[in-house]
């Protein structure tokens, strides 16, 4: 998952070397919704959340015992630098489901 032009370009370039057999790239549209504070309606209406659910193969109401039931065992999110309170943070998250 990429957020921002530079992270999308970087991920696209890396796919050339890594190949597309086990890696893919998907650009997020807007600011990612904080799912802890969102209502059910907000989750259902958010395009990025719905796309992530489709990409992973998540089914509403299903309890997952392990990652083998999902389409991917890992998810990487790459975002651009963010300026907050005059501090710069570069976010590259490697999330293991």
TrEMBL record:
Enzyme category, top tier: isomerase
EC number: 5.6.2.2
Originating organism: Tanacetum cinerariifolium
Name of this chain's protein: DNA topoisomerase (ATP-hydrolyzing)
Any single Gene Ontology cellular-component annotation: nucleus
PANTHER family the record matches: DNA TOPOISOMERASE 2, DNA TOPOISOMERASE/GYRASE
Protein keywords: ATP-binding, DNA-binding, Isomerase, Nucleotide-binding, Topoisomerase
Keyword DNA-binding in record: yes
Catalytic activity: ATP-dependent breakage, passage and rejoining of double-stranded DNA
InterPro entries given in the database record: DNA_Topoisomerase_II, Topo_IIA-like_dom_sf, Topo_IIA_B_C
SUPFAM superfamilies, A to Z: Type II DNA topoisomerase (SSF56719)
UniProt cross-references to Gene3D superfamilies, sorted A to Z: 3.40.50.670
Biological process, per Gene Ontology: DNA topological change; resolution of meiotic recombination intermediates; sister chromatid segregation
GO MF annotation list: ATP binding; DNA binding; DNA topoisomerase type II (double strand cut, ATP-hydrolyzing) activity
Cofactor(s) named in the record: Mg(2+)
């Amino acid at each position: 998952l990429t957020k921002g032009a530079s992270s999308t370009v970087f991920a696209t370039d890396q796919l050339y070397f890594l190949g597309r057999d086990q890696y893919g790239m998907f650009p997020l549209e807007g600011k990612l919704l904080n799912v802890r504070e969102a209502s059910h309606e907000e989750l259902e209406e958010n395009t990025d959340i719905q796309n992530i659910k489709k990409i992973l193969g998540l089914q509403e109401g299903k309890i997952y015992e392990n990652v083998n039931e999902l389409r991917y065992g890992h998810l990487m999110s790459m975002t651009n630098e963010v300026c907050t309170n005059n501090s710069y943070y570069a976010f590259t998250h490697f999330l293991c489901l």
